[in-house]
Amino acid sequence: MSTIKYDCRWTSEVDDQFVKDWTYVERSVFGKFSDEYIKRKYFENIYGDSLLLVAYLDGKAIGAYAFWRNDVNGEKAFFSSDLCVMEEGRGKGVMTEMINVIISNVPAGGLIFGSPNTQSYPGVKKMKWNCTPLYISFFVFSFFYLREYRQKMPLDYAKWWIVGQNKYHIKRGRHYFLVAQYSGTNRFVAFLLAEVDKETAIMYPRYRRLSLILYRSQKRQWYMLRGEPLYHIGWKCDPRKFPYWKVDGFGDE
Prior knowledge:
Blueprint: E1 4-10, H1 16-30, H2 35-43, E2 51-57, E3 60-69, E4 77-85, H3 94-104, E5 111-114, H4 121-126, E6 130-138, H5 142-148, H6 155-160, E7 167-172, E8 175-180, E9 189-196, H7 198-201, E10 212-217, E11 230-234
């Protein structure tokens, strides 16, 4: 009879074999995760230790998961990140059990949030996470965005995580914002990441293209685009308290 075991550790407690197993699963499923990216995300984290989990089927690593330390407004918080199961582990309840195990290791008072992909969203929804949709909206007037998102991205966070050459800044009135233009995206469309201070903005070049600026809104607006929303989730907390820029997709490899 097959045996599935779950090993959950803080990043300060892992050994080389554990990291090798975790990385093997992530790369097998997602086809990425460079050593530099893993080091920066989990071992040079400005907030402290993250939780990593590996699931083993008869001694072979077949599942991996992480609660990435990503504090919000001085509160200890963890972003549900990099959840994956290899083919031989699917259909056995591995994903659900990994979520249960890693949640049980979060210290009291720690907030848990995330932004699942289309494969994992049905599972977390079934487990009764709080969910809120984020719609793609036009950045028509800055006060619409500022009324919805009051948290600026701190300079230390930008220096640590918002990296790469595809980030720029724009200025609207007295306010500065970071925008990104991802590869494969229409060259006349950019995506707004966050409001920032001038000191943070000038770390990145000025965005000078005449483009549509889009952002993720928690509200259905007359100026939103059609399409499936992205979901933010929170475990026993309101996901609306976490700004959209607190997601791992902006720290490009």
